[in-house]
Amino acid sequence: MASALFRLIGAMGRNLIVANTFGSFALLTLFALGGVVLSREQVKKWWIWGYWASPLMYGQNAIVVNEFLGKSWSHIPPNTMEPLGIQVLKARGFFTDAYWYWIGVGALFGFVILFNFGFSIALAYLNPFGNSKTIKSDDNEETARGAIELSVPGGGSSHRRGSENVEIRRGSRNLSRISSDRPAFNTNGRRGMVLPFQQHSITFDEIKYSVDMPEEMRSQGVKEDKLVLLKEVSGAFRPGVLTALMGVSGAGKTTLMDVLAGRKTGGYIEGNITISGYPKKQETFARIAGYCEQNDIHSPLVTVYESLLYSAWLRLPSDVNSDTRK
């Protein structure tokens, strides 16, 4: 019930500040009206609705009824007519009927369903605060002035500023039409290009990866047909949160990342991988995600352009000319 309540508060708050403010007030109210800080008789009549709406009240009544109606508290003190357990319950305003145990259990299950239903509704209909954007800086002075000039051999060229269309013509034939965005400037004078995009989350549930048992291990008496490398691993990667996957050497960190990225071409993969709630498809996943392996190390002695150019010279066929490589 508490987990469902915290999820509901987080989904309704949608950021840390709102969730902490609203959550602190909600928890303070539940604790104060749950029958622990204030007993039922001490709660004002105009606040009694909070007592009946507090899930802590039902849990607390179920616990105390289960405890103080037991045999350990059935002793009747001298000069009294009621067992000691009944007297303790009445002193703190708790109910003395044994059926309140089952009422409390049923109410807690009901709150679990209610809070999770509200959590699902909040996720479906409440949008996050603000827009997800990234800024790509560009130090090209020519582009900083907002001028774009395109030319075609044998034809004319034209350029326009801002967000106007750039039209290229050869003779009287329109070759292409593109649109240039106006460079964005912030208060510090730094210019960048705003690129809005939709963030995605990756969740994986009970991922199991196994390969055929090596012959060397079979010769040593291993009877299993498969060697399990990942044993039902589950987790999630949230957008905008730097996540560290940690473990000892040989724990399967790289194997798990290779499985999630679709780099494993052999073996047997079981489990579910979803992208923002949708089943992962490798052909579309490769278009929205990048995967840098641990051996892809960039040398600090060369620039990024030099590294890419060097990679192009190594990877592209020999019939590709130099200009195309660049």
UniProtKB/TrEMBL annotation:
The keyword Transcription regulation does not apply. Residues 73-135 form the Plant PDR ABC transporter associated domain. It comes from the Eukaryota. Keywords: Membrane, Transmembrane, Transmembrane helix. GO terms for molecular function: ABC-type transporter activity; ATP binding; ATP hydrolysis activity. It is found in: Membrane. InterPro entries: ABC2_TM, ABC_transporter-like_ATP-bd, P-loop_NTPase, PDR_assoc. Residues 1-68 form the ABC-2 type transporter transmembrane domain. The keyword Amino-acid biosynthesis does not apply. It is a multi-pass membrane protein. This is ABC transporter domain-containing protein. It comes from Punica granatum. The lineage of its organism: Eukaryota, Viridiplantae, Streptophyta, Embryophyta, Tracheophyta.
